[in-house]
Amino acid sequence: MGFKKLFASLGAGGASVDTIITEPNVVPGGIVQGEVRIQGGSVEQQIEGLSVGLQARVEVESGDQEVKQDVVFSKQRLGGAFKVQPGAVHVVPFGLEIPWETPVTHFQGHHLHGMNIGVSTELEIARAVDAGDLDPINVHPLPAQQAILDAFGQLGFRFRSADMERGHIRGTRQTLPFYQEIEFLPPQQYHGLNQVELTFIADGNEMDVVLEMDKKPGLFSEGSDTYRCFKVGLHAYQSTNWSAYLNEWIASVGSKRNWF
Are residues 249 and 150 in the same domain? Predict the structure, then answer.
């Protein structure tokens, strides 16, 4: 982002800040590198604290409608208090860890519509907090996630949309307060199927893969044959033919329900 003037506590003449992401392309479990540059204004300014975090815009159910909410799901404080002299530039480098559960924002070189994740910057000035703009990052799939996404493509499924929903999927290793859903439209051969929704919830060793067909809004019907949750090792995924695995499950459910 460009330099942003800090008027919160000192008014005109205060410092300005710019956060620079040196490499915006990351994967879950990786590190986003960057630096915060604080440009001194015309007066000396006391900075009580500086922090960066990962922020996502998630959907939250409110009554009979859904609203968007910004959620900071990882935060790192960068040192203690310091002073910025008039006209001086104070540079603070950082390396912010990307949680393993962080949703994917890019697939096959394209941004997934609906995904809004980036680095937020906060400065504490005289007991006030001044938040900067969001600096986007590009979260690419892990190899194990890529294999399953590719399998949907090999079966002829088309990406429809993606979103992040506040809540928890029971029976999974989820620790973040929200999860991602990636929706696929089926090819003609699965003509009785409306869509399939996919969720990844990973840690450093394996991930839960959650699949659901014909999902009812807001409900995960674990007892139904249209819901499946299974574990995949992040380093052992290559032993499975994922397109065959997915086709077998969809075909089994479809034949029971006379979808196709």
Answer: yes
